[in-house]
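We give the entry.
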Amino acid sequence: MAERRKTKSSNITSFGNSQVQRIHSDIHRIMDSREYDFYELEPVEVKEVLLDKNKLPKKSNGKPNYKYYGAIKGSWINNKDQQILGDGVHILPLDTQIKRYPVVGENVVCVNYFGQTYYSDIINIKNNPNNNIKTGLSDRNNTKISIQTTDEDFRYQRNIEANRGDLVLTGRYASSIKIGENDLVPSVQIVAGHNTEELEINEPVKHNLDKDDASIYVQAKGGSQEIKNPNPELSDIYTKGSVIVLDADYIVLNAKQVLRQQSGELNEVIGKNVEIKHNQKEGTIFTGETKKILDNLRNGPIEAVKREIQKCIEEIKKLGNVPQKEFEELKQLQQKLKDIKIDPSKTLGQITNLNPTLKTKEFIDLENEYKNAQKGLEQATPKAATDPVGFAIALGKLTKVISKFARGDFLRRDIITD
């Protein structure tokens, strides 16, 4: 991978004397040996990008080898005869979390580590987030060929207008994340579908909350943000303090269990049509004032059980790091977990003097499940040193039951009012 490229040769004239010639010859070799540029990284021209599962190399059992998902095939540009390490064909991404998948015809920076060739950054030949293709660099005759492996719409070939010090992540197709400042205030702006109207070709595009297709703006205190109201009969919104803005044609908040909106001052819902409905026979809809203690009844028992869960989590983390030989310390942790007691029937009464509406069958089943899990943990604890797997299974069952209590599955979700 690393190479030395000769830059120039020394030119020393012989003086005829044999001894002088030898000296000058030695000097000549020394000078020549140092007239090189050293290259630790080398570019590769991309010939193929393996993102199709059907094109991945196969294992011995005939199934795709997903180790090579995102790998590339290519040719060296400078030292064309050197070998690709690993299996001799595939070059893997260098970074484990952030992947910059190139397109065919682009050139990437490669390096060798631990007997494997890896690729990292795409060489920014055109300073274009959409297309930096330049073919033929790896061919011995340097032949340029015509190739198109990405949508080369001019709307996509733009950088993001930024401020000094900003961190900008730009996608190939008019999407970006800009982390930095807006009006001298900490800001994060996420945009999919930049508006490029009235811009010159390749002119950097500026985030525009009104015109971009979909945006999420997060801004700290100190700035202001004007949000255009889609209802022309109503005034625009001017924010104060820290703000999060979601702007798109269609916004969905999808909660699989509970979706709660709460506000310290005003919770406002405005629209041409407003619908509030439920889809179950026993469902209820209520509007009006509620007592604080009744409203907090939902969370009181849950918070109590959450504290017990946190204790379990802390001990589980420690348990995972305890070596097998340190049984004494392990026993202390087990004893601490064993001492955690939760009486579901008493917990509700301890939190509040009111009796919430319970789903009777669900509550009884969950209470029995808890008692069985706790009994199983007590039986597994003395054997933990010799059977850590059995102890871990018993502990997992108890933690799972506690989580069900924390979710409040046994409580009816009706709002209790005066």
Q: What stands out?
A: DSSP finds seven helices and 14 strands in the chain. Residues 41-122 form one domain. The CA atoms of residues 96 and 120 lie 11 Å apart.
